[in-house]
Amino acid sequence: MLNSRQLRYFAAIFEQGSLTKAASYLRVAGSALSHHLSQLEAELGTTLFERKPRGMQATAAGLRLYDHARLILRAMDSAETDLRAAGENISGTVAVGMSFSAVKAIGVEFVRRVMTDFPDVQLVLSESLSGAALPHLMASDIDMALVYNPPEDSSLRAVPVLEERMVCVGSPQIIGDTEAPITFEKLLELPIILLRQGVSARAIMDDVTLLKKIEARARLQMNSVQAIAGALEAQLGCVIGTRLFMQDQLAAGVVNARPIIEPELSRTLYLCHLSSRPPTFATETIRDVLLELVRQSVNNGHWDARLIAS
Length: 310
Fold this sequence. Notes:
Layout: H1 4-16, H2 19-26, H3 30-44, E1 49-52, E2 55-58, H4 60-85, E3 92-99, H5 100-117, E4 121-128, H6 133-138, E5 144-148, E6 156-165, E7 167-170, H7 172-175, E8 182-183, H8 184-187, E9 192-195, H9 208-217, E10 220-222, H10 225-233, E11 238-241, H11 247-252, E12 256-261, E13 266-274, H12 281-299, E14 306-307
Parallel strand pairs: 3-4, 3-5, 8-12, 9-10, 9-11
Antiparallel strand pairs: 1-2, 5-13, 6-13, 6-14, 7-11, 7-12
Helix pairs in contact: 1-2, 1-4, 5-12
């Protein structure tokens, strides 16, 4: 039966790339490490590494075991930290993924609150286009993520947080020198720049049918916010987004925004966790801070959205 020592030794060999380096890293004798690896391979009935002149190369079985070992060891470390923290100061590492819009709305204040109120928490904050956060969550690289319109998946626990109304953003020369609403059909006649958010464009809006129509008409598809902002200012097209998404450009007056009607377009922000990973004191606390700041940002008008009761 596998035990934690075997997994830690195996993971060290995998990450260090050689028995000698792993033994130095773990501060154990190389012969002992080699013995444990041989025992593990005999127990599993498979070869985990190919012995090369310059180190160890994982086999297919070794690669699969490392994926499991990484998750198991991280869960064990989190459990130990969590239980040690019971009744004491909140501590441990908490990794949070946020969409670009969420970082613009609450990112700085979120970091400030965690650093001020929970100095023993090591915060890891990852910003990404929304869809890109999901693979990191599924791989347990992050503990929670604020993402738009995640796919239905039994391994995910997704709680809706807020709903945003989408607008058309572009230069007056492209979308007209007006803030009057534009119909969806008229929108499709414009040179649309599609924001590719991670693995898909689902994060743009809730309605997948309308999204497919937009994808079919899009002149450009980009996954760079900076490139899209530059393209808007250069009058190369328009983008479907939120006022928060292009807040700086709107404030500077280089672009304007028009609400989309017939139908209105919206997207929903979810707070996602892995169903298989139990919460810790630290992750629960940081989650509550995150949700509190989202509510504050919406209530004070900084985040133009509608809160969803949960």
